[in-house]
Amino acid sequence: MKIDVRQITEGEESIVIRYKDLTPTVSRILSILGDEGGKLWARNDEEKIQIELEDILYLESVDDKVFACTKDKTLRVDKTLNSFMNEVADGAFFRCSKSMVINVNRVVSLKSLSSNRIDATMEGGEHILISRRYASEFRRLLKGGDQ
Amino acid sequence: MSDKKKTTLWERYLTKEIGIEFKACLYFFAILFFYCVFRMIRGSFEASILHMAEMILSCYAICYLQLLLFNNFDEADRFGAREYTGLAVCTCLYGLISFFGGWFERKPVVSLILGAYVIFLYFCVFLIYKTKRRIDDKVLNEELKIFQTEHKK
To answer: Which residue ranges make up each domain of chain B?
Structure first.
């Protein structure tokens, strides 16, 4: 990849990235740039856009593809759930099952279920099940412990 | 979740085992109470150790069956076909074991009364777990609000 760095003395600072395919390297660069201000790069069918982390209700992995769901849209994210949890240093996100990460700040209510599972109702009205394996960790997080 | 915090197979087995043994003891003491009342009504103040051993072993086995086949129906969120089947099968098993084990002098009527008593026990345990979960709901939602307030600061 050709890297063109120019120092300027006046005008607005900008970064232009020209790519043919969204390779992991490009994704990593975008995620580094996107990390500032709690934002995440995601894409829909036509374009690549930045979404605020706090707008995300939950992330779901379906067939090795990760989707971020906000109140009104679902966007594809070029990360795995593990890399998202490692890169995003926001304590509000919790891995609630193998295929889901929820934004605890966007949970409206919780319901205790049998076998120590928890049902989380999100702002959009979706019910997300926190499996038994992750429920104790979730309780610890609510009590103020780290993940 | 970090590897340190992941529960091991042994820990998961132990949690399950403790749950089963706790429940086996609960049902054993309830059935033992029924047995003692029967013995006293019959004018005897002695209990057979063999009967007691049969009771605890059958409670343990039936609790395992409850967990493996009927998804712990006495802890269920609501009762459906699977839960009712579990209730019927386990109640019948207690009745049959008590009859063939001679716990109540092989009187079928007393075994039937034991069956009704076991159904009552299951209902009580179901209500206890339901109440426990309702209290847990309150605690969870209070903690959630505190978490959200503190995290948004």
So the answer is: 9-152
